[in-house]
């Protein structure tokens, strides 16, 4: 126990890092078992790594090599060349966990000014028969209703966003009230302010659920789940792969499966909410990307897939998966070019594509460390940049997903 704590401290010290354990053991052989254990968990250089841990020859130092599981787990809190790789995706995981909780609890209830501005258009699609029925049953204060003009004024001030509307005079709900219940309005001669407030609230409560008819959330949560799985798997892979060859083999596969899952599930909100009124296309695209994702995971199970010389192949396989998203995006634009939401989401998707595309390029080319080997061992090497770009791309996609949800909640098909 004491020795382990000593080892942890040893790992933190940058001046004692980069010592080959084999060289150290030979030079300090006579100093006993305790000293051997002490130097055993120091960081090593690239040339002294076992073959399966040799991945990037431009990162020269600060490697952990075949540490026991406990030391490997504790190394999340120490500085080595994987520290930032672990934390970039671990923080990304917590970000998406918070976004998932937010989406599950808050996002469906959001009715902002943007949606209220579409009210006349929304009301055109409302089931008026149902609205009439609800108005009759849900306005207990109607018998005491003051004159219509005053009621109309009160409603105007209670919903400020309505002032932006050029078609306020055509506001259907007031017409509806007038047409639906003319006798009660005309018979009433009270001007009780409390009654008006009560009316306002009643009407607002009736309008809101009719404006927003939440559509299914599973494609959005599938994406959030895919993102969280990818980020957590990647973080665990970077932390644990150095433990043993078997661990490395398993963790790399989990990591590749995570990337494939993130790309595949990213298609779900895009495809589902774009083509929810065209089930044939919806099923076609979702089926295609699901099959492609499963195939990629199966290919990544082949031992040859993780070899350094296949880095370009790995990058292009994931890149190709992502690029196939161009087809549904163009298709969406053709079908909904007149819808602002279609353009808005496409803007986010182009930005996401840019993040992932640059990420794949950085991953494959190993820039900047190839220009100055050894200078970016701890911070700034290509894989860390790739991680940050992946989180940025996934977050951009989340923002696009919120636009899809609002679009379909308000407009339906
Ligand atoms: Zn990674």
UniProtKB/TrEMBL annotation:
<keyword id="KW-1133">Transmembrane helix</keyword>
<feature type="binding site">
    <location>
        <position position="238"/>
    </location>
    <ligand>
        <name>Zn(2+)</name>
    </ligand>
</feature>
<dbReference type="GO" id="GO:0046872">
    <property type="term" value="F:metal ion binding"/>
</dbReference>
<comment type="similarity">
    <text>Belongs to the ADIPOR family.</text>
</comment>
<feature type="binding site">
    <location>
        <position position="383"/>
    </location>
    <ligand>
        <name>Zn(2+)</name>
    </ligand>
</feature>
<dbReference type="InterPro" id="IPR004254">
    <property type="entry name" value="AdipoR/HlyIII-related"/>
</dbReference>
<feature type="transmembrane region" description="Helical">
    <location>
        <begin position="218"/>
        <end position="242"/>
    </location>
</feature>
<dbReference type="Pfam" id="PF03006">
    <property type="entry name" value="HlyIII"/>
</dbReference>
<feature type="transmembrane region" description="Helical">
    <location>
        <begin position="317"/>
        <end position="338"/>
    </location>
</feature>
<protein>
    <submittedName>
        <fullName>Heptahelical transmembrane 4-like</fullName>
    </submittedName>
</protein>
<feature type="transmembrane region" description="Helical">
    <location>
        <begin position="254"/>
        <end position="272"/>
    </location>
</feature>
<feature type="transmembrane region" description="Helical">
    <location>
        <begin position="284"/>
        <end position="305"/>
    </location>
</feature>
<feature type="binding site">
    <location>
        <position position="387"/>
    </location>
    <ligand>
        <name>Zn(2+)</name>
    </ligand>
</feature>
<dbReference type="GO" id="GO:0016020">
    <property type="term" value="C:membrane"/>
</dbReference>
<keyword id="KW-0472">Membrane</keyword>
<keyword id="KW-0812">Transmembrane</keyword>
<dbReference type="GO" id="GO:0038023">
    <property type="term" value="F:signaling receptor activity"/>
</dbReference>
<dbReference type="GO" id="GO:0009744">
    <property type="term" value="P:response to sucrose"/>
</dbReference>
<feature type="transmembrane region" description="Helical">
    <location>
        <begin position="350"/>
        <end position="367"/>
    </location>
</feature>
<feature type="transmembrane region" description="Helical">
    <location>
        <begin position="84"/>
        <end position="104"/>
    </location>
</feature>
<keyword id="KW-0862">Zinc</keyword>
<keyword id="KW-0479">Metal-binding</keyword>
<feature type="region of interest" description="Disordered">
    <location>
        <begin position="1"/>
        <end position="31"/>
    </location>
</feature>
<dbReference type="GO" id="GO:0009725">
    <property type="term" value="P:response to hormone"/>
</dbReference>
């Amino acid at each position: 126990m004491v020795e382990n704590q000593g080892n942890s401290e040893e790992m933190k010290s940058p001046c004692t890092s980069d010592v080959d354990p084999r060289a150290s053991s030979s030079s300090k052989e006579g100093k006993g078992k305790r000293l051997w254990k002490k130097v055993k968990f120091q960081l090593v250089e690239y040339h002294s790594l076992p073959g399966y841990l040799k991945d990037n020859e431009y990162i020269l130092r600060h490697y952990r090599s075949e540490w026991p599981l406990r030391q490997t787990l504790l190394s999340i809190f120490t500085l080595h060349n994987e520290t930032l790789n672990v934390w970039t995706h671990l923080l990304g995981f917590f970000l998406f966990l918070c976004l998932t909780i937010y989406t599950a609890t808050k996002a469906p209830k959001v009715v902002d000014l943007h949606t209220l501005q579409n009210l006349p258009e929304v009301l055109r699609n409302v089931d008026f028969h149902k609205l009439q029925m609800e108005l009759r049953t849900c306005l207990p204060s109607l018998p005491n209703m003051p004159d219509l003009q005053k009621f109309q004024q009160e409603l105007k001030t209670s919903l400020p966003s309505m002032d932006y509307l050029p078609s306020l005079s055509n506001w259907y709900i007031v017409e509806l009230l007038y047409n639906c219940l003319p006798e009660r309005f005309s018979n009433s001669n009270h001007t009780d302010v409390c009654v008006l407030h009560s009316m306002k609230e009643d009407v607002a409560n009736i309008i809101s659920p009719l404006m927003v008819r939440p559509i299914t959330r599973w494609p959005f949560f599938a994406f959030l789940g895919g993102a969280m799985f990818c980020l957590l798997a990647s973080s665990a892979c970077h932390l644990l792969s150095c433990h043993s060859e078997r661990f490395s083999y398993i963790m790399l596969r989990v990591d590749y499966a995570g990337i494939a899952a993130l790309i595949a599930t990213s298609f779900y909100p895009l495809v589902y909410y774009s083509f929810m009124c065209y089930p044939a296309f919806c099923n076609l695209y979702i089926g295609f990307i699901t099959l492609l994702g499963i195939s990629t995971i199966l290919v990544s199970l082949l031992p040859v897939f993780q070899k350094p010389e296949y880095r370009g192949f790995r990058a292009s396989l994931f890149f190709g998966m992502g690029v196939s998203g161009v087809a549904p995006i163009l298709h969406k634009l053709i079908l909904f070019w007149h819808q602002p939401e279609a353009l808005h989401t496409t803007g986010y998707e182009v930005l996401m594509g840019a993040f992932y595309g640059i990420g794949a390029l950085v991953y494959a080319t190993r820039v900047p460390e190839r220009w100055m080997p050894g200078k970016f061992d701890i911070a700034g090497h290509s894989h860390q940049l790739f991680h940050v770009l992946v989180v940025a791309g996934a977050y951009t996609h989340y923002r696009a997903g919120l636009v899809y949800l609002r679009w379909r909640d308000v407009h339906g098909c």
